[in-house]
Amino acid sequence: MTSNVDMDAIAERLRRLITQAGLPGVEPSAYYGLPAFKVGGKAFVTVKNNETVVLSLPVDRKEQLIEMAPDIYFQTDHYVGWPSLPLRITAIGDEELKRRLIEAWRYRAPKKLQATFG
């Protein structure tokens, strides 16, 4: 069995990429007891376990990403029809993950805050 990256290390990676992206108004938080990052009081990314991160994205966008990179993005019955996209954290590189974090942030951020981000 491969060793799992621990959830704190995953949260730290997310924090680093969020900082690099310069996303305003982000607060570290918890979502159902799991490490998460919120904007405007809404979680846009959650560390589900040692292998999975869940992004908030529109359902149609979620389906595009799953089709584009099924080795990274997937869904379980729990997420069908919901604007939440699980991804395999060990399968995604920092640049792509940063792009997805920006996308999820834009999906959840209040309009006024979005206007402050290039």
Instruction: Outline the low-pLDDT stretches.
Output: none
Strand content: 15-25%
CATH architecture: Alpha-Beta Complex
**Total number of strands:** 5
Number of helices: 4
Mean pLDDT figure:
94
Rg over C-alpha atoms, rounded to the nearest angstrom:
13 Å
From the spread of the alpha carbons, the general shape counts as globular
**Could you give the order of strands across the largest sheet?**
1-2-3-4-5
Give the SSE order as H and E letters.
HEEEEHEHH
Structural class: alpha+beta
Oligomer: single chain
Summarize the topology:
Elements: H1 7-21, E1 26-31, E2 34-39, E3 42-47, E4 52-56, H2 59-68, E5 84-88, H3 94-108, H4 111-114
Antiparallel strand pairs: 1-2, 2-3, 3-4, 4-5
Features:
single chain, 118 residues, alpha+beta, Aspartate Aminotransferase, domain 1, 4 helices, YjbR/MT2646/Rv2570-like
Describe the protein in words.
By secondary structure, the chain is an alpha+beta fold. The protein has a single domain, classed as Aspartate Aminotransferase, domain 1 (Alpha-Beta Complex). It contains four helices and five strands. Strand 3 (42-47) and strand 4 form a beta hairpin. The longest helix has 15 residues, at 7-21. The N and C termini lie far apart (43 Å). This is MmcQ/YjbR family DNA-binding protein.
